[in-house]
Amino acid sequence: MKNGRPDPRGFTLIEVMTAVAILGILAAMSVGIPGSVRHGRFRNLETDVQNVLAEARNTSIGQSQEVMVLFTTSSAVAFVDVNGNQAYDAGTDTLIKQTDAYPPNATASLTGNMVFFSSRGFSLNAAGSAALAARTVVFTDTGTSETASLQIAGGGAMRMQ
């Protein structure tokens, strides 16, 4: 101190604490961003698959014909199986809707890999079957091991869990 005035060199304790607090807030925000992006992609996959299933069911009712949804390792495809081989053939079958490619570290799986909707919108065990079948699509984020599921009731109604 010179002549009763504080020395102008250096920082006060309050200035240092404010700077540390601001850096801490910025660091916390930057850590949360990658997880949020991954979580958002995972939720987008759930929504995309649900939209494909809903469109398949609506088409089955609207056109009074069976519609299939095939789950592959990279996407879900809703189509009318014109040739009856229970596989999507781009040149023959009628494409209804398809998801974008699954994001990295995300999968959508279903036992049997197919959902069949009758001409009345019911979820069936197999093409041409009369037996209603409740189905579950399981979504997995392999990066975080987070899972979610989409329940499809035999009547065709869907619900996320």
Please explain how this structure is put together:
This protein is 31% helix and 26% strand. It has 161 residues and is an alpha+beta fold. It contains 1 helix and 9 strands; from the N terminus they run H-E-E-E-E-E-E-E-E-E. The termini are far apart. It has one domain: minor pseudopilin epsh fold.
Helix content: 25-40%
Q: Name the CATH architecture.
A: 3-Layer(bab) Sandwich
As a percent range, the share of strand residues is 25-35%
| Structural class by helix and strand composition | alpha+beta
**CATH class placement:** Alpha Beta
* CATH fold node name: minor pseudopilin epsh fold
DSSP summary, beta strand count: 9
- Please list the strands of the largest sheet in the order they lie side by side: 3-2-1-5-6
User: What is the C-alpha radius of gyration, as a whole number of Å?
Assistant: 26 Å
Task: Give the distance, in angstroms, between the N- and C-terminal Cα atoms.
Answer: 67 Å
Spans of at least 5 consecutive residues with low confidence: none
SSE order and pairing:
Layout: H1 13-62, E1 67-71, E2 76-80, E3 94-98, E4 106-109, E5 114-117, E6 123-124, E7 135-141, E8 146-152, E9 158-160
Antiparallel strand pairs: 1-2, 1-5, 2-3, 4-7, 5-6, 7-8, 8-9
